[in-house]
Each structure stands twice: as C-alpha cells, then as structure tokens.
Amino acid sequence: MIAGHRPSIHGGVMATRPQVHPADTMNEYPPPVLSGGRRFLAEGDSWYTLGTLKGSRLSNLLFELGLSTRTQILNCAYPGDTLKHMVESVERSTFNRLLYLPRFEHKWDAILLSAGGNDFIDATATPLTDSEGKPTPAEQRILLRPDETASSTLTGPERYVSTAGWATLTRYLLQNFQAMAGRRDQGKNRGRPIFVHTYAKPTVRPSGVLPRDKGWLYPAFNNYGVPPDFWQPVCDHLFEQLRLFMLSLDQGSGSPNAIPKLHVFDSASMSGIKPAKPGEKGESGDWINEIHLTPKGYRKVGKEFGKMIEKVLGTYPPRS
C-alpha cells in the first residue's frame, strides 16, 4: 500500500504529501526505487503505522505530512511498537539495518521517529501485583494504588501518579533515544536530523480495538481505582509531563537531556485538535478511538509538522 503525491494548498503554498513505502517492500523484487527527491527513514508506533487498525479507516500521520519538496518515506513502523523494541531489535530490524549497519545502510535526508507514546501507555497498564502476587514496586508503576493515594497530602491529579515510576520511565526513554541517535552517528547518516513529535492529549473513554476494545487508559485508570472525576485531569497531567520530557530532547532546549540534531515537533500544543467526548465509543471529535487520531486529525498535525520539517531541513546541507 503506497500513498502517492497528492498536492494541496497550505496557506497559499503548494504542499505535497510524501510517497510512503512499507518496509516490507524492500524484500520484494524489484524493490521500490527511492531515487529522485528526498528520502526519509521512518520508525515508530501506531501514529506512523501503515494500514493501522482493523475496523478503522486508514489513519497515518506520515500520509498527511505537508511538504514542499517531493519526498519518499520508507516506513518501518509497527502498531503497538515500543522504543525499547526499536532499539533492541538490531540485526533483524529493517530500520536499524537501513540506518547504520554496513552493507545495508542507505543515506537519508532525515529520520522520523514516532516513539515514547506506546512505552508510556504500557507503563500505565503495569499490573498492581507480579506473577507471584507480590505488590509491584512504585518505581515500576506510573499510577499509585488506592492505599497509597489515601495517605497522600496532594489534592490534584499528582495524587494518583507515582513520582518514582515517572522517573524510571523518563530515564529509560532518555537512554533509548540516546541509543537511537548514537546508532545514527555510527554510519553514513551521521549528523542527519531526527524528527520526533509530542502526542496530542486524548480523552479517557472506553474506545479501542480488539484485543483492547475498552481502550488503553480507561481500563488502566479503572484497575488502579482512579476516581472518574479525576480520569481526565490525571490523563492531561501525564500527557503534559510526557510533552515536557519530549521537548527536553530537542537540541535547542537547553536541557541536559538535549540530543544533538534531534528536533521535536510539539503537536500536543496544537489548539485545533478537536477532543473526543467523554464516554463516547468509536470515532469522536478528531479521534478514531481513545489514543489514535482520525485521518482529519492527522491531517491537522501533518500540515504543521511538515512546515516544521521543511524549516529545519533548510538549515542542513543536502544529502551527499
């Protein structure tokens, strides 16, 4: 399945959506021709996944990037993938082979990563007890148990969040983003820009796809006994913390977390994304389920993300 070059007008400027090739096509004969124009290598979670979710309309941020130059994207993303898997899966990973492994690597104008969101979602769903029935330590959880919140002196959404667990998650994410950038710099793509994005804030609601037909955050908040009145405040707080962490990775952030040649697009700060209505199942607002946008929603993000990519790429020399 390939998305073609569909021109559109963004603010009076002609924009061209990229041509997106699934990574599996590299194993076909003949493989896709990636000559002409720019070449991006993409990896990530379901915001970049081709074909995305069964039962949903085609929904993918990469399809909707508004770019001013003809661009082809080789997309290695897989639904539900985590940053840890992207980093650990080296020899068998198409992304890693094409990024830096000798005899396989290609030169790319940029690397696009949609990462961190699935790791965060998985962390909210950490079981309260381990396989032996022992309580899961707070540093291994994002949410606090009811007995822990009962003794808290906090009154806001922070009351339900494990500070130790959040520190564990961000430390782990930072190490993996650094590892990804380190691999970029081991081969022909040394110093090429990496683009990542923050995640728009979802509405906690029982809307997902099998086997998670009740969504992702909704069952987690229920399991941990977060009161319904606090579902959205806790969700907003956690996604804001994730946003701030992701922004700290930007090379210009001034943060100790900053990674050279990594650029963060702040989709979480966009005001045009229409939220879903609490309690609604299925498509609502610009969301197709609890944590994924509709094609229209991705189009809103892609329009602005594409502008940011063009602006930043203008500061880099062309691919040699």
Automatic annotation (TrEMBL):
Q: Which InterPro entries match?
A: SGNH_hydro_sf (IPR036514)
Xref: Gene3D superfamilies: SGNH hydrolase
State the protein's name.
Answer: SGNH hydrolase-type esterase domain-containing protein
